[in-house]
Automatic annotation (TrEMBL):
<dbReference type="InterPro" id="IPR036855">
    <property type="entry name" value="Znf_CCCH_sf"/>
</dbReference>
<protein>
    <submittedName>
        <fullName>TOE1 protein</fullName>
    </submittedName>
</protein>
<dbReference type="InterPro" id="IPR051181">
    <property type="entry name" value="CAF1_poly(A)_ribonucleases"/>
</dbReference>
<dbReference type="GO" id="GO:0015030">
    <property type="term" value="C:Cajal body"/>
</dbReference>
<dbReference type="Pfam" id="PF04857">
    <property type="entry name" value="CAF1"/>
</dbReference>
<dbReference type="InterPro" id="IPR012337">
    <property type="entry name" value="RNaseH-like_sf"/>
</dbReference>
<dbReference type="GO" id="GO:0017069">
    <property type="term" value="F:snRNA binding"/>
</dbReference>
<keyword id="KW-0479">Metal-binding</keyword>
<dbReference type="GO" id="GO:0034472">
    <property type="term" value="P:snRNA 3'-end processing"/>
</dbReference>
<dbReference type="InterPro" id="IPR000571">
    <property type="entry name" value="Znf_CCCH"/>
</dbReference>
<keyword id="KW-0863">Zinc-finger</keyword>
<dbReference type="GO" id="GO:0008270">
    <property type="term" value="F:zinc ion binding"/>
</dbReference>
<dbReference type="InterPro" id="IPR006941">
    <property type="entry name" value="RNase_CAF1"/>
</dbReference>
<dbReference type="InterPro" id="IPR036397">
    <property type="entry name" value="RNaseH_sf"/>
</dbReference>
<comment type="similarity">
    <text>Belongs to the CAF1 family.</text>
</comment>
<feature type="compositionally biased region" description="Basic and acidic residues">
    <location>
        <begin position="241"/>
        <end position="259"/>
    </location>
</feature>
<feature type="domain" description="C3H1-type">
    <location>
        <begin position="187"/>
        <end position="215"/>
    </location>
</feature>
Length: 401
């Protein structure tokens, strides 16, 4: 039925056949969240970067699978997905183009149904106070539960009942509405870590003495929003009875606009000005200058050990592990899909013609850029041409489809 989705998640454990560099912090994070490196090196599906080698379309490989995703002509959904797209293109498609314009032109043809970034949607469509993946997911889930409780239109997710002989291949993750540590006594409450609250990542990691509990963070944000709303309402009532109603109205309007901007309802979320996100520094190192530099030369991507098209690979969701680690590629993909489905449901409810065009017109083919108020547009401009490798791949896709 409408707003009901059947969810199936697939994790592919891959192994790059070329030499690559690993960061100890990244390895430690993956181990803490249950990743099995023994399995990767003994059973990982091999892949290589860059262009095809020989007749690769004649054998089963990750490249063949990625080509099938392109043939499906379905929308691609990611969270903070620029680096994801660079990784997918470079590792399973072809050498990266020489410039950004060619790269976006290729992507627009690879995914004609559109590319959607739920981090961009969380900031500029729903105006969430924070937009890192776990925050956006839990915020959407919390609001969806409220809709369900009042019998309003809401999102429903269903899962498959897999047979017992597949149990060895199925990994279950608990994703309740609230964490177990949420409902603690008032006297035992640990103060929320401001940096984690703003970005979902803290340099101290598990050693941080403050709370990284997303539910408590959302509680604090909702409480602050409600307090600001009451203050605005009280000011409006008080000024309504003044002797200078026109002046009061003018002051109230400007004051309200300022409050809205601070509250994330206009412009980026208010937390985004608290700290310089680590992601902005990382992105600057990967693509130092989009003008006069090549993506290929300025990108030294490390191979991801687990790949899901909607997975988030940025550090913004790195929190303490929960029940063996919920931050896995598959679970991140699930959270990304849930956010998209919820935002789409809200938008569709206001637009009777929503089914005739793109899912979210205001977010269609727009990628979030760290530290920027404008997105990266995935379009083919009049001044950009598709890359030669891409043109060959597209011919291959439709010739063997």
């Amino acid at each position: 039925s409408e707003n009901t989705y059947l969810c199936q998640i697939y994790n592919l454990t891959l192994l790059c056949t070329e030499d690559y560099i690993v960061e100890p912090q990244s390895v430690q994070f993956l181990v803490q969240h249950g990743f099995d490196f023994n399995k990767q090196y003994s059973q990982g599906i091999p892949y290589h970067k860059g262009n095809d080698k020989g007749n690769e379309n004649q054998r089963q490989s990750v490249r063949t699978f990625f080509l099938e995703l392109i043939r499906a002509k379905k929308p691609l959904i990611l969270h903070n997905g620029l680096i994801d797209l660079v990784f997918l293109y470079q590792c399973f498609y072809a050498h990266l183009p020489d410039n950004l314009g060619t790269f976006t032109a290729d992507l627009s043809e690879m995914f004609p149904a559109g590319i959607y970034d739920t981090k961009y949607a969380s900031e500029f469509e729903t105006r969430f106070v924070a937009s890192y993946l776990e925050y956006a997911y839990k915020k959407c889930k919390r609001e969806n539960c409220k809709l369900k409780d009042c019998s309003a239109q809401h999102l429903t997710v269903e899962f498959c009942n897999y047979p017992a002989n597949m149990s060895h291949y199925i990994d279950y993750r608990h994703c309740s509405l609230e964490e177990e540590s949420h409902n603690v006594g008032e006297g035992n409450k640990v103060p929320v870590c401001e940096k984690f609250s703003a970005y979902g990542w803290c340099p101290k990691g598990m050693k941080c003495p403050q709370s990284h509990n997303i539910d408590l963070i959302i509680d604090e944000d909702d409480k602050l929003w409600e307090e600001k709303r009451k203050k605005r309402k009280h000011k409006w009532k008080r000024r309504k009875n003044t002797e200078e109603p026109a002046k009061a109205f003018e002051e109230e309007s400007s004051g309200k606009e300022m409050d809205l901007a601070q509250n994330g309802e206009e412009g980026p979320p208010r937390k985004q000005s608290c700290y310089e996100p680590a992601a902005a520094t990382e992105l600057a190192e990967i693509i130092p200058n989009t003008e006069g530099t090549t993506l290929e030369n300025s990108t030294d991507m490390e191979p991801e050990t687990e790949v899901a098209c909607a997975a988030e690979k940025e550090k913004e969701t790195h929190g303490p592990p929960s029940q063996g680690g919920t931050h896995r590629a598959g679970f991140d993909a699930f959270m990304t899909g849930y956010v998209m489905a919820y935002v789409w449901m809200l938008k569709k409810g206001k637009n009777t013609d929503a089914g005739t065009g793109p899912w979210l017109p205001d977010c269609h083919n727009k990628l979030y850029l760290s530290g920027k108020s404008v997105p990266l547009q995935i379009v083919k401009s009049l001044f950009s041409k598709s890359s030669k490798a891409h043109s060959q791949k597209m011919k291959l896709a439709w010739a063997s489809g």
